[in-house]
Predict the 3D structure of the following.
Amino acid sequence: QVQLVESGGGLVQPGGSLRLSCAASGFTISDYTMSWYRQASGKEREWVAGIASTFGSTTYADSVKGRFTISRDNAKNTVYLQMNSLKPEDTAVYYCKAVRLRPYWGQGTQVTVSS
């Protein structure tokens, strides 16, 4: 049974950092394209970053490029999102997504950037 569990969210001041984790079970993350999405209150869910299955190439939304880093630890079967220089507009629920033949989603973790 495929399961994704996000953690690491919280309240942080502008300019601060957080690292989100997405622990996967029921499948091997290196066989899937793994992504992070976010959804701010009253807005549509948007793609943030992705890491490809075979070679692990990474891509980012323009809004987070240079500030966020997606990575994976195959031994721990976990994907991470390192978020630096956080801004109030980064406030959202962050979701992990795995895709191979069909998408799987985690339950999300809240990130709030506020002074």
Summary: The mean pLDDT is 97. The CA atoms of residues 60 and 66 lie 9 Å apart.
